[in-house]
Amino acid sequence: MPHSPSAAAPAGRSRTGSTEPLHPVPPRRPAGRVAEEPRVWRPAPPSGTPRVSIVVPVFNRVDMTLPCLVALADNTPRELFELVVVDNASQDETQAVLGQLAGDVTVITNSANLGFAVACNQGAAAARGEVVVFLNNDVEVAKGWLEPLLGVLDQDPSVGAVGSLLLYPDGRVQHAGVLLAELSSCPLGPIHLHYGGSPDSADVLTRRPYPAVTGALVAVRRAAFEQVGGFDEDYWNGYEDVDLCLALAERGWGVVYEPASVAVHHESQSGPERHVKEDENLRRFVRRWLPRVVPDLLAGPGGGLHPARSSAAAASRWRAGVAEVWKGEPEPVRPGGQAPPAPPRPATPPPAVGRGPSPVAVTDPADLTTHEHAREDAEAVEERRLLDVVRAGRDVCWIEPEDEPDPLVTIRIATFNRGPLVAERAIASALEQTYRNIEVLVVGDACDEATERAVLSVADPRVRFVNLGHRGIYPQDRMAHWRVAGSTPANVALHLARGAWIAPCDDDDELTPDHVEVLLRHAQRHRLEMVWSRASWEAEPGLWVEVGSEPLQEGHISHGSVLYSLGLRFFPYNGAAWKLPEPADWNLWRRMQAAGVRTGFLDQVTYVHYLEAYKRPLSPAPVVRRDEVRLHLGCGTNKLPGWINIDIDPQYQPDLVHDLSLGIPAQDGSVDFIHSEHVFEHLSLEAGIRLMRECRRVLRPGGVVRIAMPDLKYVAERYLDRWRDQAWLRDPGFDWIDTPCRMLNVAMREWGHTYVYDADELRLRLQQSGFTTVRECGRGRSDHPQLQDLETREDSLLVFEAVAT
Fold first, then answer.
1. Residues whose CB is less than 8 angstroms from the CB of residue 754 and which lie 6 or more positions away in sequence, other chains included
2. Taking 60 as the threshold, does the pLDDT of residue 287 lie above it?
3. How much is the mean pLDDT over the chain?
4. Separation CA 374–CA 606 (nearest Å)
5. In the chain, pLDDT over 90 holds for what percent of residues?
6. Gyration radius of the chain's alpha carbons
7. Rounded distance between C-alpha atoms, residue 204 and residue 214, angstroms
């Protein structure tokens, strides 16, 4: 090994074939992944058996590998270790640098990029030491880093893995231990503690056991590594390190964080390929470990964090809340086979949580919204702190316009099975931008071949396409699914974007030709970090309405009418926004505003949102005002002729696919009649009042809204009548329901009844929403011919009409 770049010695003798390690661990190789056996090169015969084998997997980035190896040579006792470098078919100058290494070094060269897990297993198989250290090539170790790790292993024979304190180049904490928590995107995942925090805090400087440590720098006892079968090679550059730690713990091995061992970590320098299977990795991790572990941190309704393992009851409630959502796929098996149940490990009092999704537990199905608000409140503190960090003393988080007047803008399109439409509409409009310095990043949510062919047929070098291996993990309820579908590819795109700005565009909509130009110039002129505009929405063929105004509020902003700085990439789409309930895009803009992002509005149409059920020319249609406008909210399968039928679910082929929690897409005073049947009881009280106020806003003077629903007495009696005989109670996951109270609460959730009204309550809420003329009607009866005999459900027993003044 070189002490410095100038001290590199010429290579010694080389040989081909495979090494003969003292403890062979044949890695489990998926069929078809390796085209040929890797080439193994050792510059000199081994002398003795080193105690430690340091395995460094590399893929390109020789600019990171060389400082890594130099730091290793400068700061590690030569007699303690051998070096094993596994090159995953690098295309840069990596091979030339590795060919100059001298000393106790083994270089393994693969013919293809096999990923982190395979490379680490290959290195472990070639290693001779009793301790194997896995080291990323973007890590530079400090003086005295190795001895503390060995000290922990020497002091406690039950410890299987030890991790180090990793710092960013500016001194902030990158890794100081890993806990398990319920993330916004799934019920179980790892979080880095003290992420971005000070390395001088007492928690950071305390040695302690954790569920996991990062694989960027970890020392593993060889016997433990062999017992669990090494890294699971079905992961691709993500979660395999946490999976290994949990497998070790399941076999009784301890995992310890040792802050006396310090290194600098540049983090995630392997390129965008690292993230292409992020969703598949997460799915595999959750399927394996959800039935076998409980998060270390759970949050109560008030947002306080509590050790989950200190309360068996809390753990049981957490499982009941998430098991139904995540059931259905077989649990993956690790390379080492199914492990026996591990003895329970003691509760670890959690240190203060730094950056990373804050945990929240679903302790009761009725508390989903409350818990998600608590989780978001906890995470909002960190989002505000990170906003200050990325601004770095400036008043906005982007480069000065005079330094870079025409920055690269990434137009991001998340797509799922749109076929040619995504190319004909969204991509075509992106390539027709008057602003030319753009890239068009299309991320598929595990798209079909037709969509993949359509995107790849676009012959423009500015278009990049990444298709995820598995679709995102979304709830099964159709309305909840609609609210967050596409959040997974949208979040992956945040890692892949190369531009300084991001312009989201839905895959069936289009940007106006000046979209990027006018929004970017407006942001630069007014020093904004996020800007939105008006959008043209197609309500039905020939009827267009405009959506968008200030201040920023729900129902007055379209997903694709936004441009924001890439510096805000630490704001991901919240895949759990359906619990609130609100769409993931509005949830994102709301969180940005709450954190203090500098936002602004451009009073100009820059985006066109099409009615999904129709295919027509791509130029916007003119705004049309009919003689009488009637809106049917939440139509389902009951579409009324002569009405604009609106529903959130496109399978019903309504005239307008729209989430009414965003508001009603119509101008003030433009609607004559509104009818809804079985809608308001599916909304929270707050959302219901918002929708009533929206009805008041869009109705002309004298316009009428008609609301029909089952009343409170009917719902309660129906649910409580012979409650034990209801068939759904025999479905998996409901065996814990053994009282009428529990059955009623769960039934309300299963049927989607969020807030049920009686006559007094509905009258009060309509009056609070601004209606002065409110009266109760019979089913099918009305003074207005347009509103007579509209109800189709026998249980629509509570019917009210309210007149706008």
1. 681, 682, 683, 684, 687, 748
2. yes
3. 78
4. 35
5. 32
6. 29
7. 15
- Mean pLDDT over 123-130 rounds to 92
**Residue 365 phi, psi (nearest 5):** -55, -30
- Beta strand 630-633 with 644-647 is parallel
Residues 631-660: tens digit of each pLDDT: 999 988 888 988 999 988 777 788 888 878
Peptide bond into 581 cis (omega under 30): yes
What are 793's two structure tokens?
């459900």
Rounded Cα distance, 494 and 496, in Å: 6
Give how far Cα 106 sits from Cα of 428, 431, 692, Å. 51, 49, 71
C-alpha angle 326-736-296 in degrees, rounded to nearest 5: 50
What single string gives the DSSP state of each residue in 551-579?
Answer: S--TTS--GGGEEEEGGGTTS---TTGGG
For the segment 663-698, what is each residue's pLDDT rounded down to a tens digit?
888 888 889 999 999 899 888 888 888 899 999 999
Quote the tokens at residue 709.
Answer: 């629903």
- The number of angstroms, rounded, from the C-alpha of 696 to the middle of its chain's C-alpha atoms is 36
Residue 202, class by beta-carbon neighbours within 10 Å (0-12 exposed, 13-18 middle, 19+ buried)? exposed
- CA atoms of 383 and 358, how far apart (whole Å): 11
Q: What tokens were used for 52?
A: 């430690």
Tell me: the pLDDT tens digits for 289-317?
Answer: 877 787 776 544 444 444 554 444 444 44
| The pair of three-digit structure tokens given for residue 528, joined into one six-digit string | 């904004």
Between 364-368, 518-522, 677-681, the lowest mean confidence (pLDDT) is in 364-368
Q: For the purposes of burial, counting CB atoms within 10 Å of the CB of 36, is it exposed (0-12), middle (13-18) or buried (19 or more)?
A: exposed
Burial class (CB in 10 A: 0-12, 13-18, 19+), 273: middle
* Residue entry with tokens 């399941």: 250
Residue type at 205 in one-letter notation: L
- Using an 8 Å Cβ cutoff, are 43 and 13 in contact? yes
Model confidence, pTM: 0.43
